[in-house]
Amino acid sequence: MQVSKRFLLLAVLIVAALVLTACPAQQPAAPAPAPAEEKGEAAAPAAEEAAGPVEIVVWAEANNVEHWRADGPAKAAEMVEDFDINVTPVNDDAGWGDYKKKFTLAADAGEAPDIVLSGHEDIPVWANAGYIEEFGWCREKYPEFDDVIDSLWDSVTWKGKIWGVPQDTEARPMFFNKKLLAEMGWSQEEIDALPEKIKAGEFTLDDMIATAKEGIDKGVVEPGFGYWHRPRKGGDYIQYYAAYGGRLYDPEQDKLIVTKDALEKWYAFQRRVVEEGITPENYIGTEWSIWHDTVTSGKVLFWNGGIWQWADWATNYVADQGGEEYLFSFVGYALQPTGIPGRPGITLSHPLVYMITTEEASGKSNQEAACALLAKTTTPEINTLHAVDSTHLGILKSQATYPDYANNRFLSDVLYMLDYNFYQPNHVMYGPYFDIVWDFMVKAENGEMDPAAAAEAAVQQLQAELGDAVIVE
Predict the structure, then answer these.
(1) Which of 104, 170, 302, 320 is the most buried (most CB within 10 A)?
(2) Dihedral angle computed from the Cα positions of residues 272, 273, 277 and 278, in that order, rounded to the nearest 10 degrees
(3) Which domains does the chain have, with CATH numbers?
(4) pLDDT tens sequence across 245-300
(5) Do β-strands 174-177 and 347-348 pair in parallel, antiparallel, or remain unpaired?
(6) Which helix (H) or strand (E) holds 421?
(7) Is 70 in contact with 90 (CB distance < 8 Å)?
């Protein structure tokens, strides 16, 4: 009996020891997780590290000299400290129409990229559709964004909120052939003074037409080669509407504006350049390749283009003739002339902007990491790579003195044009507005309608289709 009790006691002790060995000692309760941080605060790096690199997809419309639009963020990923980011850059050269259609289809399907680059005018439509994030929280989070030229934030503002960050901007100069002007009898001093005369409103659109006609009359310029504007649809044409005093937008009322007198004068200008023989008949629709070959061959006296085309010409059209130095030898550049004597020349600036897509559009919750990536992309080191290679104006205050940018002769020459620029408005109905004024402008230039009648018809259609969204003055 005594032995049995000892045996039972020993058995109980052994079982207890085995149980304690199998179960770890109880740990203190883990603290409750902190409340989710509001958007705009940094996400916890440890959580991102545990999940592996954040996969960010960046889409951009870009040709071979504009590849830094998507490759820039890929390079900037190396500088991001908040997150471990892997970037898949996609540069698409299919054309803006197809590119934007592809994005909207992807966003509707919840398969959009994390970051999309497009024109600032897409903001109202894409924000209204829920495709893109409001950007104010990101803007306030990183000091890199403080370096952006202040006025450029206006281009990404809609309904009082910021919806993206500028990636580049540009000017649309009037280029001129210095050699042909010299053959016409212009002195070097007169040629060099032309940009300043345009800036001061002392050389107008009428003067340009008269000079082109003179060049043709003297046999220096071939008929139809006195002035070539953009050959296809684009915002450049709005410069001539603005040159005659046309207004586009009233921000206080958030309404579009059409100025009837300026619209008619713009249409009359487009018809006049054809009637007076300095632009060819049925010119609109000319292939871009023909246009680029013609203006870079030295045949055209005046032409309207964009500063980004300078890099394209040097790389893809005149590389075997000396590239950029060859262009400098005969191409001059100035603001677009005014249509009203005494008023300064102007230029349209069209910033392209990075936008962060919503979780609904992308199917992913990478918005915090995308913000951190764009902060490091918005630096002189990264942005200047694109600006110099593609001859776009930089978007940062510090770039004016950043060596690689400041040492670029062409960019330094045209930087002043930002002081004379304007933007197309951020308004959900601006797309239809532009389509209407464009369609009737083409009819006027081609002689299908009298300019005054075309302007009147455009106003009537604007009122019918846009209703209260447009003010007629």
Answers:
(1) 302
(2) 160
(3) 50-170+350-422 (3.40.190.10), 174-347+429-472 (3.40.190.10)
(4) 999 999 889 999 999 999 999 999 999 999 999 999 999 999 999 999 999 999 99
(5) unpaired
(6) strand 421-422
(7) yes
